[in-house]
Amino acid sequence: MSSPLVSVVIVNYNGEKFLEECLLSVFNQSYKKIEIVVLDNNSTDNSVHLLKEYSARINLITSKENLGFARGNNVAIRKCSGKYVALLNNDAVARPDWLEKVVAIMEGNPALGSAACKIISYNNRSVMDSAGLLLTNDGMSRGKGREEGVDSFNETREILIPSGCAAIYRKKALDEVGLFDEDFFCYCEDTDLGLRLQLFGWRCIFVADSIVYHRYSETAGKFSPFKAYLVERNHFWVVMKNYPGYLLWLNPFFTIKRYIFQIKSLLKNEGTTAELARDVSIFKIIQIMLKSHIDTWKNIIPMMNKRKFIQKNKVIKVKQFKEWLNLYGVSLKDLFRERSHPAQAINDKKFGA
User: Fold this and answer.
1) Whose CA is closest to 253, among 140, 135, 137?
2) Residues 329, 254: contact at Cβ < 8 Å?
């Protein structure tokens, strides 16, 4: 039986300093039946010149504007011809058997719509970056296993959602449920797509020996106000579109509970909220929260229209969603746990934010 074509998609913005290593890791895959689609998000560094040097081996798309992660990936995916679409961040490096391992699992189980790879910290290869995503009752997400030891994640098992940093999607599943929601721009779009796939009956698996090393946003060492705004706004949209009705109505309660937890963390100078406050004034944080709420409600009609489509076509019952939150839930304490590696803090510059 012939091997299926895999389309590898890389979205780049000003990633010149680590882009070549990323590309070379894809060129060196043991799995050879691949096409590589790279979209450059109007980089201002030397990225495009570097990419053109590899024009014979990649399909290069140059955008005249920064499309963000969601739309940038969508534009690239629409150019793909593969049975599978594999996403890889431009600051990630794949092991030579990355695709071989994950494709074998996907081919063996047609019910799988997506797969998560074992994403390990590039700078500290003894700790995890992500083994998929965990969820809260109010739609926030965090990488499963982040900063935990890699040896605790040696078992291939079913999970809920892959991280968009390094994930593989069955093209047939994407054709059915749709691509990333471009209104998100970046952040939480992988949570949204992953939940949509699950709601439509497509399963997801974590492939323990499909390994990628990720520089967890190495370029910048600070939290960004724009990132905080996007996460706050987008996670509400995740709930509006995908969560059961009872959780939609309870969302204000969960949000207040989360804000109380964050205020306490600020007073104790603990957690990622306090980490943000070290670089941004409390007044600015309040402005960010207010703007996120205003913009959330500005878009409530289109989001609820998207909800109608999802809820009409889903095959999963409320009971199953409750089980997901029990199996793949994350506490507020873990959600806002401060990173022990400051150099690995979130970097919005990857998407021009």
Assistant:
1) 137
2) no
Instruction: Please list the residues that pair with 93 across neighbouring strands.
Output: 213
3-class state of residue 82 by DSSP: coil
The whole-angstrom separation of Cα 165 and Cα 342 is 19
Q: Which residues contact 231 (CB under 8 A, 6 or more apart)?
A: 140, 187, 188
Question: Is the sign of the CA dihedral 184, 187, 188, 189 positive or negative?
Answer: positive
Query: 205: phi > 0 → left, psi -120 to 50 → alpha, else beta; which?
Result: beta
Distances (CA, A) of 181 to 37, 71, 82, 202, 306: 20, 8, 21, 18, 10
Listed in sequence order, the residues at least 6 apart from 19 whose beta carbon sits closer than 8 Å to its beta carbon are: 10, 12, 47, 50, 51, 90
Name the phi and psi angles at 85, rounded to 5.
-115, 120
What are the tens digits of pLDDT across the range 26-79? 999 999 999 999 999 999 999 999 999 999 999 999 999 999 999 999 999 999
Helix (H, G, I), strand (E, B), or coil: what is residue 168? Answer: strand
Q: Check residue 180 and report its DSSP letter.
A: -
Write the pLDDT tens digit of every residue in 266-321: 888 888 887 888 888 888 889 999 999 999 999 999 999 999 999 999 999 999 99
Bridge partners of 77, per DSSP, are: none
Contact 62, 40 (CB under 8 A): yes
CB 347 within 8 A of CB 219: yes
Coil, strand or helix: which one is 91?
Answer: coil
For 173-224, how does the pLDDT look when each residue is reduced to its tens digit (9 = 90+)?
999 999 999 999 999 999 999 999 999 999 999 999 999 999 975 433 346 7
Three-state SS across 96-110? CCHHHHHHHHHHHCC
Tokens representing 127 are: 């700790």
Task: Report how far apart the first and last C-alpha atoms of the chain are (Å, whole number).
Answer: 45
Structural domains in the chain?
1-353 (3.90.550.10)
116: β partners = 167, 206
What is the Cα–Cα distance from 303 to 38, expressed in whole angstroms? 29
